[in-house]
Amino acid sequence: MAFRLFNTMSARVEEFRPLRDNEVRMYACGPTVYDYGHIGNFRTFVAVDLLQRYLRQNGYKVHYVMNITDVDDKIIRNAARAGMTVRQYTEKYEKAFLEDAALIGIGQPRLVRATEHIQEMADFVAKLVAKDIAYRTDDGSYYFRIAKFPEYRKLSKKDFSGMIDGARVDVDEYDKDSARDFALWKGPKPGEALWETSIGPGRPGWHLECSVMSMKELGESFDLHAGGEDLVFPHHENEIAQSESLTGKPFAHFWFHARFLLVEGEKMSKSLGNFFTLRDLVLKGHKPSSLRYLLASVPYRNQLNFTFDGLKQAAVSVERLRNFRLRLSAGSFPAGANPAMQSLASETVERTHAALDDDLNTAQAQAAVFEMVRQANAAFDAGEIKQGDVAPLLAALAKFDEIFAVLDDDDVPKMKKMLDWATAEGR
Ligand code: AMP
Ligand code: ZN
Predict the structure, then answer these.
(1) CA 391, 393, 399, 405 torsion-angle sign
(2) 306 CA distance to ligand 1 centroid (A)?
(3) What tens digit of pLDDT does each residue of 51-87 get?
């Protein structure tokens, strides 16, 4: 069976085929580095990590780019309040993101920073102005005229019939249902960071950052663009409008969106006291592998309800997998091979593959491996495992772990590192 994936653009599950034979060019919207990442952010980042690992396992050459949003409204505001430059302010959170990503087993994407592409962003705006798609306002800002892009809404499918031509919005995150000309570039404001460029002083809007960096790294048309479900509108709709207006070509082919994580059934919020960073949970004694396993356990298109019971259960599951591997690798077995175990191993490989082929059904993949562990443990207890069964069973487990990445026990050093950080921060 071919790999099938839901595409937000077509709103259906489609066969995934890259635009160029064996190469997948994919871009994920990365963190806005104004604070420590929370487990909701990592739900999305883990989902994209599972996807890129699975594509690699299927033999594709994957070019995986993620941006670091190190300039946006919140960063500018916070940096100004703290009396710091933007770089001074973001440095600490960017470093924390890299550490957290490693903590939770996210394979390194190629990372690109918004602040290192400012002039390219200004050039992009200038080209849109030359095409009469963008216009300048008196304060030195530039807006995208959405009336010039008739396909505006094709990703989000929102009804913009009441849209008013020329109405503007200049905040990066805005009202979920209003279509307005959005800021590509924001003119300078007293006390806020600015960059001097060929279109004047100011700073880029958030949407522009991703269009410029993704096309620079991956080309005008590439295979897949990913993020959490909240990015469909306005962020990704705006990226499409800007990019396709400029190039006249389709921007990303597949749009991959992970649904939100809730905590004990509720939206995470600081006021509810249910807001957790990855660091909070590790410092409470939860293992990084349990967190990764839990975040991977719910297929990315389903809401993930994070609970502490679920986290404990995930820890038990990881232990069970690790013990099974240990049992097989350390045990001594009679010569020969048991046909039942041989077919159990090969069927498990097929089942996990079929589950992941089916729009990355991670829950079914995990279930298939657990069924193998259950049956093989029973065979073990009955003395029915033979020397020749060990390698295929271990291989099935290893193949699963190429995607889920929880078998190697490096939890203790990772937790120790986190503890050292907390101590140094005086927490
Ligand atoms: P941000 O750092 O706010 O730009 O977000 C980084 C990524 O996390 C984006 O792809 C968001 O869509 C995603 N995200 C934010 N909150 C959640 C959540 N509760 N569950 C899943 N993904 C989220
Ligand atoms: Zn983005």
Answers:
(1) negative
(2) 15
(3) 999 999 999 999 999 999 999 989 999 999 999 999 9
